Every structure is written in C-alpha cells, then in structure tokens.
Amino acid sequence: MMRMRRLEVLGMVIIWIHVVMKVQGFNVGITYIQSAVAKGAVCLDGSPPAYHFDKGFGTGINNWLVHIEGGGWCNNVTTCLARKNTRLGSSKQMATEIPFSGILSKNLSYNPDFYNWNRIKVRYCDGSSFTGDVEAVNRATNLHFRGARVFVAVIEDLLAKGMKNAENAILSGCSAGGLTSLLHCDKFRNLTSSSTNVKCISDAGYFINVRDISLVPYIQYFFNDVVMTHGSIKNLPVSCTSKMIPSFTFVKQITTPFFLLNAAYDSWQIKNILAPGVADPNGTWHSCKLDITMCSATLLHTMQAFRLHFLSTLNGVSNPSRGLFINSCYAHCQTERQETWLRNDSPQLDGMTIAKAVGDWYHGRRYIEKNDCAYPCDKTCHNRVFDTNGNTHGLEDT
Known about the structure:
Blueprint: H1 2-24, E1 26-32, E2 50-54, E3 63-68, H2 77-84, E4 97-100, E5 118-122, H3 147-160, E6 168-174, H4 176-183, H5 185-191, E7 197-203, H6 218-230, H7 238-241, E8 258-263, H8 267-274, H9 286-290, H10 297-314, E9 323-327, H11 338-341, E10 348-349, E11 352-353, H12 354-362, E12 369-371
Parallel strand pairs: 3-5, 3-6, 6-7, 7-8, 8-9, 9-12
Antiparallel strand pairs: 1-2, 1-4, 2-5, 10-11
C-alpha cells in the first residue's frame, strides 16, 4: 500500500514537472538561410545564418518580435578561430531546437503582451554584434567577417515571410544581441514598412566605457580590436567610431524609440570591464565576481562607484521615447529567462515586473523610467551565483 502511494506521488511529481516545462518553455526548430551564402552573408566559418521562428496567432499574427542572441565578441584572429567551430561561429554547431521562454514565451500568463506575436530568435555567429564586413577571406584561417550582411539577410528573409506586412515590430536582444538591437535599431526601422510601429529593446546591451581596477581602459582597447578585426567602422555611428565606445555616445543618435533594460551591477561588465582577470593577477576579486554576497566592503565600494558611473551615462540619453528599467541586481540578461521576465517572484521596481514595464512602454500605456536604490536594498533580485568555472547554474553568461 505504501509502495503504491509512493508511486502515485512520484507520478504526480512527474506530471507537475511536465506541466511546468510545457508552460514556461517550449522547443522551436531552426531555420537556415541557405540563400544568404551566395550574398556572402555567412557565419565566421562560412556556414549560413540561422534563426528559430514560432509563428504568431490570433490578434498577434501581424506583430513581430525579432530577438538577437548574445554571446560576447571575438577581437582578433586567435579569439575568432577559438569560436569558429562552435555554435558562436558556425550554424553547423547550433542546436536544431531551442526552448523559448520569457519574452519569447507563447503562454499568455507568462508573456501577456507578446505571447501571440511572431517570435524569432536570431542565432549569433559572427562575433561582432552583426557589424563586420570584410570582403577578403584568408585561406589559412577561412574566417568570414560578414556580420553586417548577416543582419540584413535575416531581416530580408523575415520580411519575405510576412514581416513586410507587420503592424508592430520589435528588435530586441540580450548582451551582445542587446548591443545589436541598439546599433541596428534605426536600420531595422528603415528596412521595415513605413507604416510599421517599430521600437527596440536592449537587454544587458548597454556597455559603458570605464577604466578597470588597474586604471587601464581595457574595454576600450578590446572594442577597438573588435572594430579593426571585423572591419566594422563603416557600419557604426560616427560618435561610436570616433571614440571606440560601443554604447553611451551613439545612443544619443538613435531616433527610433528604444528601451534600456540593465542591471546597474551587470555581472558581465563587473567581471569583464571593471575587474577583468588581467587587471586582477592576485585574484582579489575572484570570489566577489562569483557571488556578490562574498564581496568585501572595499570591493563593494568600488562596485557602488561603478553603478554611479553607469547611471551618470544615462543622463545624456535624451531620446524622448526611450524607456528605462535599471535595477540594482547582480545579473545579466533578464528578458529571456522566465524567472526574471515574469513570474510570481520576478524582479520588480515600484511593484512593476520587467514584462509589465516593457509592455506598458511599448504600447504607450505609461511613461517608463525606473531606477533602483543601491545594492543590497532590492530584495526582488535574482542575483547570479557562478561556479568556479564562471558558469551559473548551467546557464551561460552571455
């Protein structure tokens, strides 16, 4: 009798897990743009670009959400070769199905404003936030720096599949994809119909130019190398290329409405801009970067200064149609994960979730410009905790 009861309980648990998985995430197959190869619009290894597409339905059938995957950047031949034969450099290495959740969810309860839109996740395989365009291909490396062409090829393919008739359209992205959504925001608007209501969302894509803990402008040098390696200059705003700063100068020039979602203590920026390994040879920051609760008072003081610098750069972003949601979490990318996008325990500012803020901003229901108090006051945060290899509970820090 007891054995039967245990089996019943186990069966109920399995069913519950299945239901939760079905509600919070679902797999979507991959689409390869084979026709893009003839145009030279290819990944680092020369393979065709790809995306995952879940069609809209009901009232959302003429609405489109194009979300760009993140994945950092490669700044020279060596680092680009390192990713050439991975999913970040080759569509041959990409999973043929990936789960959609968060802003890509098709469940009304978990994504009320965009659940029935046409939802696309564009795979990231060029290493330059889709800005590169070098015609020559070195035979020894077979590296293709063609990100700008890939972006256009993807959008043109989607336009041919119905996006040309879109009533509403969003270009969004996470991390390097969030930077893409800013860099290509106006281009995306120009490629779509003049009658389409176009807006852009950058999730963890607002990277600031600040000296690292050794007072070296490490990130400025890094992005300068990215631009030089990929031949990105002609595809970037003058305000960006003149100073080699990838975010806060050029956003002033964006005329399309855009929304900035960022953690003021962005975990990627703390780990790679403020305290990169090269600036911390003794590993003073090691435990702090893995878990913010392990930061000493001295290191927290430095992080608080980073937050203030981050916030100060936003003062110059004067687009009247912008939206802001800057929380004081130790996080990176909050739209793709259901637990941070919309759930009972999701991050909130003034009682408002990220999903609610983005939805209200896009549909013009209210003006959204929300900023948080300093760490550790926000108890709704999902602060990331990394293992010693830099991984966070099996999720990649893109």
